[in-house]
């Protein structure tokens, strides 16, 4: 039996004021923030506000019950998603948003096999220049939803002639299993007005609209084509429905 824990009342009141409960079909999302996050963006310091969220089956207005569980559930084993917000996101007339799928190899290592890292930084730059917006960083979207280990296997197949879509299918996955439901719920908790979506992928725009996102416009993000991702980007256009409307080629999305 876990030992009942009691937390310092000041600690609790500090946290309680920063946690928002969002009801879902499966339970609740606990959204924590805003937290000041100054970011080094191309050599300049840009102020963002950061929020992180956690899915939980238990719906409790008493946040102490949730905190009491944290130390025993090993959250580090399952990464949480988060969102970087810039400017007056709630009230701005027009706000840019991006739903960025986590890419361990591209975002962290700067892999040139895809252009995720480039897209992430460019979206942050767009949002900062526009003045208001949000970058959702979706932690359960690795490899279009197959996970990091399976992505490594898929890369081996890709090195042997399979394209990105076929590699996923050969491993028994659907090509794209990403779900945006939770992120949209979090977005709605932060902003009620329509948003402009940063994406090259019309299918993603459609999926988000069907999931209830109020999108007024789409802006595209092009660039960072190299010999290493040419084939990958070509597959995106030919097989995954991305439009190559910009200069150069399209990006992962
Ligand atoms: Zn990537």
Automatic annotation (TrEMBL):
Pathway(s) the chain acts in: Cofactor biosynthesis; riboflavin biosynthesis; 5-amino-6-(D-ribitylamino)uracil from GTP: step 1/4
Enzyme class: hydrolase
Gene Ontology MF terms: GTP binding; GTP cyclohydrolase II activity; metal ion binding
SUPFAM superfamilies given in the database record: RibA-like
Keywords associated with the record: GTP-binding, Hydrolase, Metal-binding, Nucleotide-binding, Riboflavin biosynthesis, Zinc
Residue ranges occupied by any GTP cyclohydrolase II domain in the UniProt entry: 78-220
Protein name: GTP cyclohydrolase II
Gene3D superfamilies assigned to the protein according to its UniProt record, in alphabetical order: GTP cyclohydrolase II (3.40.50.10990)
Top-level taxonomy: Bacteria, Bacillati, Bacillota, Bacilli, Bacillales
Needed co-factor(s): Zn(2+)
CDD domains to which the protein is assigned, alphabetical: GTP_cyclohydro2 (cd00641)
This enzyme's EC code(s): 3.5.4.25
Alphabetical list of PANTHER family matching this protein: 3,4-DIHYDROXY-2-BUTANONE 4-PHOSPHATE SYNTHASE, GTP CYCLOHYDROLASE II-RELATED
Record field: catalytic activity: GTP + 4 H2O = 2,5-diamino-6-hydroxy-4-(5-phosphoribosylamino)-pyrimidine + formate + 2 phosphate + 3 H(+)
GO biological process: riboflavin biosynthetic process
Example of a GO cellular component annotation carried by this entry: cytosol
Pfam families (UniProt xref): GTP_cyclohydro2 (PF00925)
């Amino acid at each position: 039996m876990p030992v009942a824990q009691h937390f310092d009342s000041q600690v609790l009141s500090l946290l309680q004021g920063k946690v928002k409960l969002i009801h879902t079909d499966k339970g609740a999302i606990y959204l924590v923030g805003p937290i000041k996050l100054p970011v080094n963006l191309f050599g300049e310091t840009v102020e963002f506000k950061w929020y992180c969220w956690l899915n939980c089956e238990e719906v409790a207005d008493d946040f102490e019950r949730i905190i009491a569980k944290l130390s025993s559930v090993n959250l580090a084993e399952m990464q949480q998603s988060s969102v970087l917000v810039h400017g007056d996101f709630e009230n701005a007339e027009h706000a840019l948003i991006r739903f960025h799928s986590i890419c361990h190899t591209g975002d962290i290592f700067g892999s040139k096999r895809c252009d995720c890292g480039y897209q992430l930084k460019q979206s942050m730059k767009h949002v900062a220049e526009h003045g208001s917006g949000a970058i959702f960083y979706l932690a359960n979207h690795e490899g279009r939803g197959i996970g990091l280990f399976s992505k490594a296997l898929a890369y081996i197949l890709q090195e042997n002639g399979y394209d990105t879509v076929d590699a996923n299918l050969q491993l028994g996955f659907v090509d794209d299993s990403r779900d945006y439901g939770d992120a949209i719920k979090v977005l709605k908790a932060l902003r009620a007005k329509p948003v402009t979506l940063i994406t090259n992928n019309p299918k993603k725009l459609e999926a988000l609209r069907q999931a209830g996102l109020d999108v007024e416009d789409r802006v595209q993000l092009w660039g960072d084509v190299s010999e290493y991702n040419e084939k990958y980007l070509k597959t995106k256009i030919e097989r995954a429905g991305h439009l190559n409307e910009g200069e150069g080629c399209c990006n992962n999305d």
